[in-house]
Amino acid sequence: MTEGLIIDDNRQTADALNQMLQVLGFKARAAYGSSPAMELFSKGFTPHFICLDINMPGVDGTEVLAFLRREPQLMKVPVFVITSDDQPETREKVMKLGATSIIIKPATIDTLETALKQAKILA
């Protein structure tokens, strides 16, 4: 089964994304912030896709994205940036860092489904 990873410091948002992904037929783990996510990666966890928040305390999502694109086993994993920051500079930065697509919060099941289809993760 295709397994995703949700990285968001807001538990409500992460859990809501997880429920939407389950409805779409995916299994997903939630990491409530960048540190728990980095711990999973250090243990060799390689998800099929990642839903990544940008504005998190400590190591933010752009730093996580830069890390993902440097790591051989993670560099090809599709990363869907899910953020409330709709500024053109933010969009440009995350796309340059290698995001697959950007979803502006609040994410809906339709926007998630569209992003997963565009990335050919969902038929």
Describe the fold and architecture:
This protein is of the alpha/beta class and 123 residues long. The protein has a domain of 63 residues: Rossmann fold (3-Layer(aba) Sandwich), CATH 3.40.50. 42% of the residues lie in helices and 19% in strands. It has a five-stranded parallel beta sheet with strand order 2-1-3-4-5, sandwiched between helices. Strand 1, helix 1 and strand 2 form a beta-alpha-beta unit. The chain is globular, with a radius of gyration of 13 Å. The two termini are 14 Å apart. The model has no long low-confidence stretch (mean pLDDT 96).
Stretches where pLDDT is under 50 for at least 5 consecutive residues are none
- Strand % is 15-25%
Please bin the fraction of helical residues: 40-55%
What CATH calls the topology of the domain at 29-39 and 57-108 is Rossmann fold
The pLDDT mean sits at: 96
Strand order of the largest sheet: 2-1-3-4-5
How many extended strands? 5
Largest sheet: number of strands, sense, barrel closure: 5 strands, parallel
CATH class of the domain at 29-39 and 57-108: Alpha Beta
- Pattern of helices and strands: EHEHEHEHEH
Structural class: alpha/beta
